Amino acid sequence: MDEAAREAREALLRRRHRLVQLQGEAESEQRDLREGRSPDWVDQASDDGAARLLAELTEREQSEVAEIDAALARIERGTYGVCLSCGGPVERGRLRAIPEARLCLACSG
Questions:
Q1: What is the largest CA-CA distance in the chain?
Q2: For residue 44, is pLDDT > 70?
Q3: Best CA proximity match to 47, nearest among 20, 29, 63, 64
Q4: Tens digits of per-residue pLDDT, 84-94?
Q5: Average pLDDT of the chain?
Q6: Which of 44, 49, 83, 85 has the highest CB neighbour number within 10 Å of its CB?
């Protein structure tokens, strides 16, 4: 594993840890909201909005964790930094900015 892949792996693992921690906190808050429903319709509407927002956050976090896991798998396979579209190299600067990047700049848009 080269130095860039090692650095990326460390950054990805740190970010994954933070996301899983945030995900757990959001799920705990969702449980608290479900269990503490108020009969007051204003409070209930507010709780419903908060629950929807928390669910949306956890979906995004789950998606990001999946992207991180895919990048970690590419590191382990030795294919990290190879564009999944054209097979060319993903630019080092792009990988530093977005360690889970799957595509080179040309293929990304």
A1: 59
A2: no
A3: 29
A4: 999 999 999 99
A5: 84
A6: 83
Residue 33 has a pLDDT of 65
Q: Which is more confidently placed, 108 or 24?
A: 108
Helices 3-35 and 41-77: crossing angle in degrees, nearest 10, is 160
- Asked if residue 96 belongs to a domain, the reply is no
With respect to residue 7, please indicate whether it lies within any of the assigned structural domains. yes
Q: How many angstroms separate the CA atoms of 104 and 77, rounded?
A: 18
Residue 68 in this model has a pLDDT that exceeds 60: yes
How many domains is the chain built from?
1
Element spanning 39, H or E? none
- Residue 89 in domain: no
Bridge partners (DSSP) of residue 82 are 89
* 3-state per-residue secondary structure call for 49-108: HHHHHHHHHHHHHHHHHHHHHHHHHHHHHCCCCECCCCCCECCHHHHHHCCCCCCCHHHH
Q: What is the mean pLDDT of residues 29-46?
A: 59
Q: Write out the residue range of the structural domain in which residue 30 sits.
A: 3-79
